[in-house]
Amino acid sequence: MMNVWTLFIPELYCLLMAVVFFGLAMSARPNPRRDYFAALFMAGVGVVVALACVRLEGTLFFEAYRVDLFSQVFKVMLAMGFFLVVCLCTELNGIEERHHPEFYLFLTTCTLAMMMLVSSVELLTIYVALELSSYSLYILVPLRRGHGVDVEAGIKYLMVGACASAVMLFGLSYVFGVTHTTYLVEIIHVLPGVIGTPAAIVGLLLVLCGFFFKLAVFPFHFWAPDVYQGAANQVTAYIATASKVAAVAIIMRVVALSGGSSKYLVDMLVTLSIASMTLGNLVAIVQKDMKRLLAYSSISHAGYVLIGILSMSATGYASAIFYALAYLVMNLCCFLVVVKVSHDGSDLKIAQLAGLHRRAPLLAMALMLAVFGLAGIPPTIGFTGKFLVFAAAMEKGYVALVIIAMINATISLYYYILVVKAAYLMEPDEELPRLPVSIPTKVLTVALVTAMVVFGVAPSYLLEVARAAARMLM
Amino acid sequence: MDWMIGFAILIVKLGVVLVGLLLLAAYLVLLERKFLGRLQIRYGPNRAGKFGLLQPLADTIKMLTKEDIVPEAADRVLFLLAPAVVAAEALLIFAVVPFGASVTLLGKKIPLVITDLNVGLLYVFALASLGVYGVALGGWASNSKYSLLGGIRGAAQMISYELSLGLSLVPIVMLARSFSLLDIVRAQAHYPFILVQPVSFMIFFISAMAETKRIPFDLPEAENELGAGYHTEYSGMRFGLFFLGEYVNLQVFGALVAVFFLGGWRGPFLPPVVWFLIKILVISILMIWVRGTLPRLRYDQLMHLGWKVLVPLALLNIVATGFVLLIIG
Amino acid sequence: MTVYGAVFYILAGVILIATGLAITRRNLVHSIVYLVISFFGSAMLYYLFGAPLLAALEIIIYAGAIMVLFLFIIMMLRVEPSALRKPTLRQWLPAGVLGLIYVAVAILVVTTDPGSQTILETALARPRVFGRFLFQRYWLSVEIVSFLLLIALVGALYLGKAFVKEGGDQKEDQS
User: Which residues of C touch A105 (CB under 8 A)?
Assistant: First the structure.
């Protein structure tokens, strides 16, 4: 019995954090400093805990829950994402002070839910874990100070989310009807045999729709721009990073169920991938708001990740895992700049970046590297990620897809460079003071930048881990 | 052939129960009026027949012959449907209430219950929760301010107290280890559950009073502020159906209290069915007595009592019962 | 066709019609009544399939609690049917097209899937067995759901509280 709970330690730790914040939320007087340091400390320990548990393996709860390298790697990423987002909360001005404990509470529960999501190997558990993470986010989005846009964003998010859930449940019923079980271990034996039947393929696609909503893939992307813009900057950072990583993990799990032999599924994923990339990149060009731009860029990146997944090979999955990690780091770096530049918690226009290289050279540099990474320019981690993904697709012979993706990457370069241009070449209308950048922020920025460059140049260790994790899926 | 006999027995049982319920409902009205009269130092109805015993008959004739008015602005279909929902819901609950152990007639064993569902208790709740629609829709369909207010109050009140009603019975299910009403009575072979679950009994009794919308919980009707609340606009037999529903509900809760807490049909000397009737009557009289004694609650007091007192108490009771059961094994 | 089959098709028809009416009525209260009928039909179907517990819960929770809350809110807000906008062609068209695609897929699934031809055996899930199954095999899901409800509760409390707070401030201003 002892062994069982050891496997569950990262989740238990998250639960403990949630309890602590629940207690803090009860306290009568708001104390943002206390909340922040409590969150920072516990999130930091959380990363350590997740790292310590990375080698655990086993199943628990009547085989509904599997702990393996795949799940643990993603748990580490989630814990890191959570920790880094908490790091951005030094000035949590977007949210009223008395709601800070609730903010951390919902962040924690969302992380907990996503940790359980990546470990679940049973359809019902997957569904309720997904719902738990969604609910936390539904509440986090309208938590922003000042009513108006945020409420609209919250409602939009809830509506699209509820529809996606309904579609997904419907798909689950098909999958259950075809395979007569909710356990992935058993489904993976049955499903490849019947994948040719319409019921199985429709079921699987509808199930995927629920996760596509999380990842903001093409037909379920409507919420992304409004929610990115409407939510507080830190919340957006979280939605854009940690929640995307979890979605990638679970999509891989479900796609792996098909056994890689369904042409329909591949065709469908190819279509969605192309649609996402193209739409995201083209619409991003005209954006004026930094967060909206990042939203459309995230839609296109969802398309790139899908390329790795739809290859349905060990290299494909490994490349998708690597890409998810790369995306986490790059996007967090972007949001770090967004949060720091708009330190009063308001939305950031791209034009407001003007003169950043003089106001805060370090941030400007970080922004440039992150944005180049997103565009896929060497020597950043983004280039390596894109390279791996495309290589995996080429291996399977999807040449046309790769060419389209490359054209897309070129288009995206345009608007990414606009951001860099704003930061480096444009001058503000009036002289703005230097941005105060504290020592911890500097350390954080340097660490993120180093990670981006070092793992971009020497990705072999991470790639090994990703490959080992991906093998767990096959 | 066997199938035919079974069907005939079922029809007979249905008929007996239906007639019995209606008769009892009619005389409960008389009992209430007489008893209330006595409590208020009056005589109550005493002109129709000896001691007013024909009063129910007179009332029925009056209701049936009165004009059935449907307000012009009312939502006709729902307006006509609402009273039927209330009456039907109350009557249908009796389908699972056991009146006694089985009797043997002509060599055939006949259980004294219309049907023994293995989810009988939940069936009762399902129907009780549908009763809200009669009140809410009746109030809404009348298209009158008083009725609407009554309907809204009714919906809020019933949904709040349904919660404590349901929670109060969880310990009973834990003790009996079954949802079947027959099993619950059987489980009380040695002692009635009221002895071990007095808290549960209290919560159930209070919530049941609120569910039947009787004083002190009659806010949906509240004569002196809302006219008659959700049935202000009703007349004739449709009003009669609301009325009937209320008194059948009185018996329903009497019967349920008997089944859940007082050992059902069990009792010394007298035949089981008689004991069961006595228990129903005692509970009904208790409820009438409460009506004659207590003033109406204020709306916030009503919500406070429901959500902040009864629900937590019921939850605590569940935990305590589970704890004790775990210890005794 | 067996008796079961006949009852099934009648119930399915009732559910379909009631749900269809529920989503097309302009009057919200009527919609609710049709939806309740549809839930009732689903509950009957569950009972027919040998799951009385689910049937009872369907009525208690969906028809008896959730829809009553909807009704309560609609009655409180007094939403007039005329206040609702008629959907334009631009809103109708995508819905219609998607609906048609769905119908086509559904027909395809039903006609081509060999699984849809098998005759299901009648089964009976007793409450006790059902409970054991649920709380043992799906223990984790049940726990997550309870946590989910807690989070939803905290969230609802927060959203509701924010609103009350503003009202409270106004009151202070007046006094």
Answer: 154
- Residue C173: what pLDDT? 38
Helices (H), B181-310: 181-186, 198-211, 223-226, 236-261, 272-293, 299-303
Indicate the DSSP class of residue A289.
B
pLDDT of residue C174: 37
**In 3D, which of A82, C151, C17, B255 has the Cα closest to residue B263?**
B255
In this complex, whether B and A touch, counting 3 or more CB pairs under 8 angstroms, is no
**Averaged confidence pLDDT in chain A:** 86
Contact B137 C55 (CB under 8 A): no
Count of domains in chain B? 1
Residue A109 has pLDDT above 90, yes or no: yes
Classify residue B300: in a domain, yes or no: yes
- C74 plus C145 within the same structural domain: no
Task: Give chain C's domain count.
Answer: 2
For residue B119, give the nearest of C52, C75, C76 by CB distance. C52
Please indicate, yes or no, if residue C32 is contained in any of the structural domains: yes
Question: Is 60 exceeded by the pLDDT of residue C89?
Answer: yes
Write the CATH number for C109: 1.20.120.1200
Q: What is d(CA B239, CA B255) in angstroms, rounded to the nearest whole number? A: 24
Chain A residues in contact with C140 (beta carbon < 8 A): 61-62, 64-65, 116, 120, 122, 125
**A383 alpha-carbon distance from chain centroid:** 18
Which residue range is the domain that position C120 belongs to? Answer: 3-126
Predicted confidence (pLDDT) per residue in B113-151, tens digit: 777 788 888 888 888 888 888 888 888 888 888 888 888
d(CA A470, CA A313): 9
In C, minimum Cα distance to A151 occurs at C159
Quote the domain boundaries for residue B291. 73-328
B65 lies in some domain: no
What's the pLDDT band for C170 if we cut at 50, 70, 90? very low
Yes or no, beta carbons of C72 and B75 under 8 Å apart: no
